[in-house]
């Protein structure tokens, strides 16, 4: 099943193997995609669907060094080369729209950018900057209603830019502690206005982003990534989380999206997703579901066969095995990735992993 083709909205995927969004920090310091990135993605175009690395919809959302954006023309031009290289190899690619919110340092951002979140807070811990190495996160200011409105419109504009740049669709990043999850979780959203409070209000930011993007580019070109119980970037899990995400998933199901993409990062030290919650999420969302988190071919087949998912996403295996699909088909051993080059500039540990192709 893993290697069977599948319809996704109006496009056909050559298999159900998805390449996870993977931040690799190979864009320029100005957040512009490079020719090296086109080569990297083209090497992996055997995947049924590639989801791009987290890509900022705004200069305020580019919290990490050298992550790409989709908010200016140079970025659109850079991405055009990437999507053309993937399409040339009969691959399909969605852009992941990632606004880092409070997971940010001003040194990584363009002049005039601001660090903002649902509520004002400073994330504990440090993050890497090219200029000064590890630094504390910059304090995030609480967004005003006008800033919420303009940020939603930035997502819409980035989604339209993605389509202009040749992407087959966009994935809204609502996972891993970034801006949308900062709105979703009651631990980081302390607002007293209509964007905070119960889950109906806290999920309004996500739904406004998804609804307005869908209205512009078509809901069948929009996916959403969520990490219920996830504890990345200072997030914490709390009682009632299962019901909150069931609410969100039931509402997403009504939008007839391309897909929802759910993560279980427990193998990477993230929160464990209880089995009963997984079953409840599957019941709540009856559309196309991608599951991710420490998959290999055998467990992927099992989850496709039971209907737990329609597609399976692989992250770290795709970093070090550009020919992952071929290797999984052949049952060949996989190359292990080198974490020391996950985010370093240049070809090393990026485009130089061997391929049997
Ligand atoms: C180097 C690296 C970068 C990542 N960047 C992103 C990202 O930009 N967006 C995202 O949603 N998840 C990101 N993730 C999480 C992966 O998409 C994936 O969910 C995770 O690696 C678990 O899948 P795996 O066990 O197959 O690797 C990243 C993970 C790694 C290892």
Question: Unreliable runs, pLDDT <50, ≥5 residues?
Answer: none
Give the spatial strand order of the biggest sheet: 3-4-5-10-11-12-13-14
Element pattern in H and E: EEEHEHEEEEEHEHHHEHEHEHEHH
The first-level CATH class name: Alpha Beta
Question: How far apart lie the N and C ends?
Answer: 22 Å
**Which ions and ligands are bound to the chains?**
flavin mononucleotide
How many helices does DSSP assign? 11
- In oligomeric terms, what are we looking at? single chain
Percent helix: 25-40%
> Main sheet?
8 strands, parallel, barrel
Q: What would the average pLDDT be, to the nearest integer?
A: 96
Into how many domains do the coordinates divide?
1
- Which class do the helix and strand fractions yield? alpha/beta
Radius of gyration: 19 Å
What's the CATH H-level homologous superfamily? Aldolase class I
Q: From the 3D structure, determine the CATH topology.
A: TIM Barrel
Report the sheet-strand fraction. Answer: 15-25%
CA-based shape = globular
CATH architecture assignment name? Alpha-Beta Barrel
Number of strands: 14
SSE topology:
Layout: E1 6-8, E2 11-13, E3 17-19, H1 35-43, E4 49-55, H2 73-88, E5 93-97, E6 116-117, E7 126-129, E8 133-136, E9 141-142, H3 145-164, E10 169-174, H4 179-184, H5 199-202, H6 204-217, E11 222-226, H7 241-253, E12 259-263, H8 275-284, E13 289-292, H9 297-305, E14 311-314, H10 316-320, H11 324-330
Parallel strand pairs: 3-4, 3-14, 4-5, 5-10, 6-9, 10-11, 11-12, 12-13, 13-14
Antiparallel strand pairs: 1-2, 7-8
Helix pairs in contact: 1-2, 3-6, 7-8
Task: Describe what this molecule looks like in 3D.
The protein is of the alpha/beta class and 357 residues long. The chain has one domain: Aldolase class I (TIM Barrel), CATH 3.20.20. Helices cover 32% and strands 16% of the residues. The chain has 11 helices and 14 strands. It has an 8-stranded parallel beta barrel with strand order 3-4-5-10-11-12-13-14, surrounded by 4 helices. β3 (17-19), α1 (35-43) and β4 form a beta-alpha-beta unit. α1 (35-43) runs parallel beside α2, α3 (145-164) packs parallel to α6 and α7 (241-253) packs parallel to α8. The longest helix is centred in the middle third of the chain and has 20 residues, at 145-164. It is globular and about 55 Å long. 50% of the residues are buried. The mean pLDDT is 96.
């Amino acid at each position: 099943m893993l290697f069977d083709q599948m319809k996704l909205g109006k496009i056909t995927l050559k298999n159900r193997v998805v390449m996870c969004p993977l931040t690799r920090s190979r864009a320029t310091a100005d957040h512009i995609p490079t020719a090296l990135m086109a080569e990297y993605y083209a090497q992996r175009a055997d995947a049924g669907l590639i989801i791009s690395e987290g890509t900022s919809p705004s200069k305020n959302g580019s919290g990490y060094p050298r992550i790409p954006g989709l908010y200016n023309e140079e970025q659109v031009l850079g991405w055009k080369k990437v999507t053309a290289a993937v399409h040339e190899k009969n691959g399909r690619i969605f852009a992941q729209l990632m606004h880092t919110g409070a997971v940010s340092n001003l040194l990584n951002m363009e002049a005039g950018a601001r660090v903002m979140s649902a509520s004002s807070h400073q994330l504990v811990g440090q993050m890497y900057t090219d200029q000064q190495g590890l630094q504390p996160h910059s304090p995030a200011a609480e967004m005003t209603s006008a800033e919420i409105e303009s940020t939603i419109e930035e997502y819409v504009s980035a989604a339209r830019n993605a389509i202009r740049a040749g992407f087959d669709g966009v994935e809204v990043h609502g996972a891993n502690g970034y801006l949308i999850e900062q709105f979703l979780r009651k631990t980081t959203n302390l607002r007293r206005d209509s964007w905070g409070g119960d889950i109906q209000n806290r999920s309004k930011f996500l739904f406004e982003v998804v609804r307005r993007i869908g209205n512009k580019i078509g809901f069948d070109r929009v996916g959403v990534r969520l990490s219920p119980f996830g504890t990345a970037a200072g997030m914490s899990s709390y009682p009632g989380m299962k019901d909150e995400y069931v609410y969100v998933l039931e509402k997403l199901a009504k939008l007839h999206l391309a897909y929802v993409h759910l993560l279980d990062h427990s193998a990477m030290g993230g929160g464990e997703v209880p089995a009963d919650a997984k079953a409840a999420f599957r019941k709540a969302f009856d559309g196309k579901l991608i599951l991710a988190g420490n998959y290999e071919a055998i467990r992927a087949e099992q989850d496709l066969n039971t209907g737990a998912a329609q597609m399976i996403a692989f992250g770290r295996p795709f970093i070090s095995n550009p020919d992952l699909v071929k290797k999984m088909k052949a049952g060949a051993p996989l190359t292990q990735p080198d974490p020391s080059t996950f985010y370093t500039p240049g070809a090393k540990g990026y485009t130089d992993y061997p391929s049997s192709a």
